[in-house]
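Batch job 17 of 40 flagged for manual review because the log was empty.
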Amino acid sequence: MQEVGNYYEMLGVTKNASSSEIKKAYRTLAIKYHPDRNLGNKAAEEKFKDINEAYEILSDQTRRVQYDQSINRKKFINKTGLGNFGRNNGAETKANATNRDRSRVESEDFRPGTTKRTRVVNSRPASRDIEAKLTLGLDEAYRGGKRKIRLEDGRSLEVEMPEKMINGQRIRLKGQGIEAGDLYLKITVARHPFFEIQGENIYCQVPVTPTEAILGSAIEVPTIDGLVKVSVPNGVRSGQRLRLANKGYFDKLGNRGDQLVEIQIFTPKEITEEEKELYEKLRSLEQFNPRKNILKSL
């Protein structure tokens, strides 16, 4: 008998490699030789099959132990023959080749103390669920829609994302895992430059002019649904919060929160001569003194 192709060599790792080292090597090779990146390259296609075959064995602790033991007994044949972990031999039929690509594997073993051979036929490897992380912008998480993603094994998928996703949510994609297992996408909602998610509420700061704060005004405030008109009461203070009902985000039960708008009073760095004259006149007429109580306490 010939020996099976060395799966450790296929992945470029040593026999004592840790699970994380095997996984890292597999990811690197899977991306490099993925068919999407090597269109029409048969050699790359075969290499991709080899490294997937090697990873299926070496990533499963039980099958890896069996593989190591079998190598020690030297009862395996190489990937051109029949083996527990290899492919069918060069005399296979077209139908057998198809079965091979579907991960159907066969093995021959000898019972101790006898020359009688027992053929074991294994079904395709067990399905396995996998998890991947996906970071979305707030707008994407809110509205959902189609999103192209690339997995660590090199596969590309177009996913229809639901709306109103929240940070930490897991999305199940049936049949997109290993061997028809499921793929779970763990959602992270990225920080937004203007909005801040606080539970089911959305917090933001909006600047107003001193005149708008003193006299009150109607201003436009951004929300995740678009601009809305908000009435700023006269005499509003910097740091005061206005509440926009049902303009927030969502909790796990789908209940919508509010948007909290914190007012920030901004003074201009530059003013016109006419504005300066008016401010000078206002100062001469102004009775309000915000430091009055401080001065009394001294």
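Reviewer: the log was empty due to a logging misconfiguration, but the result itself is present. Residues 75 and 86 are 12 Å apart (CA to CA). Unflagging and moving on to job 18.
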